[in-house]
Design goal:
The chain is α/β, with parallel strands linked by helices and 263 residues long. The chain has 14 helices and 8 strands. Helices cover 45% and strands 14% of the residues. The mean pLDDT is 94.
Length: 263
Amino acid sequence: MARTPLIAGNWKLNLDHLEATHTVQKLAWLLRDAKHDFNEVEVAVLPSFTSLRSVQTLVDADKLDIKYGAQDISANVSGAFTGEVAGSQLAKLGCDYVAVGHSERREHHRESNELLAAKVGAAFDNGIVPILCVGEGLDVRKEGKQVEFTLAQIDGALEGLDAERAKQIVIAYEPVWAIGTGEVATPEDAQEVCGAIRGRLTELYSAELADGVRVLYGGSVKSSNIASIMDKPDVDGALVGGASLDPDEFAKIARFRAHQVGL
Ligand code: PEP
């Protein structure tokens, strides 16, 4: 099955709503021809909550071909959960995607696989596609246990998820040692774990379902390394942090097909 590549920018705790609007505008302008030439790549940005309304307004008004979403979602529906943002609130802002279980949230907010399974459910309850982030730290990589560690995260976060929902999920393999470090995994490293994730989806659901799920790589992706990573058969896109804050660089990443054919 042909999987549409997804290039998603995780802006983390950067850009106020004015900067976010400017960045989306420039990105859309830079990609204006890409839709025509390379129209099978989906591009998304994940701004801070405070920018979502502005991004929505811009994307809707100018009918921009850019998707957007949030960096986190509450597992709760409503009520006494100060500071949390519910799936229904994100859906009202037109969010297509939400990142769930980014390693920074797992580390700084102690998010467990059980909580993440609830967040995945909350996203689907509101018609938002979760981008489930998984990946090992340096200690696990040094022991050579990256595949089993990552698959255990998958098992935990997909617990109880039915096939109808699972077939829509996006999974981002992000080795923690490669995030924001400039230390990019080799294409072979990315393929090893992304392929194993697809294998696990086959075991948990079916080969047909696994074949349709997009598995992204994330960790120090740049325009100079995206093409070789995207050449791997089980890598269907990228979750990009630092480089997504620069629209010129992010647009080049989104146009990875131009690098692949040497344009
Ligand atoms: C990320 O935040 O998901 C990420 C991959 O960051 P960076 O591209 O900066 O390594």
